[in-house]
Amino acid sequence: MTATVMTSTYTVEGRLLEICTCNAICPCWVGEDPDGDDCQGVIAWYIDHGVVQDVDVSDRAVAVVCHIPGNALAGNWTAVVYVDDRCTDEQQQAILNVFTGQLGGAVADLAALIGEVVAVERAPFTFSVTEGAGTLRIGDAVEAVLAPFQGATGRTTTLSETVFSTIPGSPAYPGKASVYRRAGRLLGRPDVDISGKNAVQGAFRFSG
Fold first, then answer.
1. Looking at the 3D structure of the chain, how many domains does it have?
2. Is 203 a domain residue?
3. Which of 21, 45, 156, 167 is the most exposed place for a label (fewest CB within 10 A)?
């Protein structure tokens, strides 16, 4: 008998930057209700290396700009998905197939919380992490500057074994955003322009 070799349809790995209107550390990560009854967030993944169904999606980014109306685990999120405007049509579809959960894996559980995607937009991304400080810009829709908390030993504070995660299976580094601006037009929400609220950084590796 010849053994059947199962091959992965995708593997993507890279970095996460997340910002929202909750106080730090965001209660959503431990299954509690968001501060202020709802959450206006941005979750951005930069794919340093990735192949999706034989399509190379390395050095590309994708983000979910979302309104979470209550407890994050209850779902019913409304979202706009932003895709790196350097993507070819083939790359864009491959990335959407992963991050909308169509190809399974841990990221599909996160995607299942989104009740409605109101738009898919292409935009230029600025996504950088230097010595623990992150910068995210998505066209004219999002601007954020964030930094992690430091522990008493000088090492970066780590958040792990949480009931909710935007990088399932990987530790996260909570912190604050000194700048968080987000256009709310496509979501039918007010614009956000705040400072000192929740921010999260981390690394991910998704496969399915």
1. 1
2. no
3. 156
State how far the Cα of 18 lies from the Cα of 134, in Å rounded to an integer: 10
Which helix (H) or strand (E) segment holds residue 11: the answer is: strand 10-19
> What's the number of CA atoms in the CB half-sphere (13 Å) around residue 185?
5
Tokens of 156: 């970066």
The separation between CA 87 and the C-alpha centre of its own chain, rounded to angstroms, equals 18
In angstroms, the Cα distances linking 124 to 111, 136, 165 are: 23, 11, 26
Q: Estimate to the nearest angstrom the gap between the alpha carbon of 44 and the chain centroid.
A: 4
CA distance 170 to 100: 20
Domain membership of residue 206 (yes or no) is no
- As a whole number of angstroms, the distance between CA 65 and CA 176 comes to 18
Cβ–Cβ under 8 Å, residues 88 and 94:
no
Cβ 26 vs Cβ 198: under 8 Å: yes
If you search the block for the tokens 């399932």, which residue do you land on? 168
22 lies in which domain range? Answer: 10-197
Whether 85 maps to a domain, the answer reads yes
Strand partners, 56: 51
| Of the candidates 72, 59, 60, 61, the residue with the CA atom closest to the CA atom of residue 17 | 61
How confident is the model over 15-47, as pLDDT tens digits?
A: 999 999 999 999 999 999 999 889 999 999 999
pLDDT digits (tens, 9 = 90+) for 120-168: 999 999 999 887 789 999 999 999 999 999 999 989 999 999 999 999 8
